[in-house]
Design goal:
Layout (H helix, E strand, L loop, with lengths): L6 E4 L8 H10 L5 E3 L3 E2 L8 H6 L9 E3 L1 E3 L3 H14 L3 E6 L4 H4 L11 H14 L3 E9 L6 H8 L7 E7 L10 H8 L6 E4 L5 H10 L5 E4 L1 H5 L3 H6 L7 H17 L5 H15 L7 H9 L3 H13 L7
Parallel strand pairs: 1-2, 1-10, 2-4, 3-5, 5-6, 6-7, 7-8, 8-9, 9-10
Helix pairs in contact: 1-11, 3-5, 5-6, 11-12, 13-14
Bound molecules: flavin mononucleotide (FMN).
Flavin mononucleotide binds next to helix 9.
Length: 320
């Protein structure tokens, strides 16, 4: 928790906030209290993808409390996976009703299910009577319209839920436009459940704005804002750090790189993963476009390391 009794939760970001990132991040930065892991898809009964399960294995997740997230719409498959996670030690699971990608939504998964409140009702009726874990839901306002949520909230009120994590955009909006604070407020006051706010907290001011608008909200989920500025949770909580920021970022980067080096076999995979982080982190360095371009163009591991070194040695100013 910390300052103002607020909890900061690292958002699930598929391809970014995996167990390696979560552990390395926790070694270098504070202020983040919990994380939801990137989604694990249901695969049909009796089938599990070992790499996805490994990502949430409690023995690998001792540094940051993690809640596994499940993506799926078939009650039996969900129960099978949730039971497996329970046996591993996960008392809580999260259901993904927010994924905006059309390939997933077309199959009535993620935000694609939000247009079918009766299916969500039937799903929860079956699942919640069978699983041993408690359940939270992460969702958007709707698939196509921001009003869809108002047909769903009375249904969700019937069930015990840990919390509702709401990212106030529609699915088809993807990440366009801004998070709709008015719609978040309306949803918050139309539900009996506890809410966590998620969306576009990118700096101290955007956090303070949300906090001012919703003083009862104590739990905030942040995704891209932390990738862009790993100091953000410390800043929000007023955790002072005297050490040089660029030096801290460099040490963090090197640690992340070395950890991924042990995981990814091909250089393309390794640099590809690291470049993903740079696409968020890089623009936080003032006037660094040229240096960032070199990193994003690096094809070999050797070249990548060389241009990253050069980047950190250039006197770019880190903007929070
Ligand atoms: C690359 C990427 C991957 C994501 N993966 C997931 C995911 O696995 N599960 C999920 O619920 N949301 C996922 N999201 C959505 C984020 O968790 C979050 O809701 C969204 O980015 C808004 O929060 P932010 O503005 O703080 O980033 C993803 C978003 C991005 C950009």
């Amino acid at each position: 928790m910390g300052k103002n009794n607020i909890t900061i939760i690292l958002a699930p970001l598929q391809g970014f906030t995996d167990v390696t990132y979560r552990n390395v991040f926790s070694d270098h930065f504070s202020g983040v209290d919990e994380a939801i892991a990137p989604f694990i898809s249901t695969m049909g009964q009796m089938r599990l993808k070992p790499s996805r399960i490994k990502d949430v294995a409690p023995e690998n997740n001792k540094k940051l409390f993690v809640v596994p997230q499940i993506l799926g719409n078939i009650a039996g498959d969900f129960i099978f996976l949730a039971d497996h996670l329970y046996d591993m030690g996960h008392k809580k699971v999260n259901w993904n009703l927010g994924c905006p990608h059309s390939k997933i939504a077309k199959k009535k998964r993620g935000s694609g299910l939000l247009m079918y409140p009766e299916k969500i009702d039937a799903f929860l009726d079956t699942v919640l009577s069978k699983i041993s874990n408690t359940l939270s839901i992460k969702l958007r306002l709707g698939r196509k319209s921001k009003n869809e949520i108002f047909n769903l909230l009375p249904i969700l009120d019937k069930y015990p839920l840990d919390e509702i994590i709401l990212h106030p955009r529609t699915g088809i909006q993807m990440y366009e436009g801004t998070s709709d604070h008015d719609a978040f407020g309306k949803a918050l006051y139309s539900s009996r459940h506890n809410f966590t706010y998620n969306g576009d907290i990118t700096d101290l001011n955007s956090f303070l704005l949300v906090q001012k608008k919703f003083p009862h909200i104590k739990r905030f989920m942040i995704g891209r804002g932390i990738l862009s500025n790993p100091f953000l949770a410390e800043r929000i909580k007023g955790i002072g750090q005297n050490k040089d920021k660029i030096e801290r970022l460099k040490i963090f980067h090197d640690d992340l790189f070395n950890n991924y080096k042990t995981i990814f076999s091909g250089p393309g995979h390794l640099t590809g993963r690291m470049k993903g982080f740079w696409s968020y982190l890089g623009p936080s360095f003032k006037e660094s476009k040229k240096g960032l371009k070199k990193i994003l163009k690096a094809t070999s591991t050797h070249k990548y390391q060389y241009v990253v070194e050069e980047f950190f040695n250039t006197d770019y100013k880190f903007i929070e």
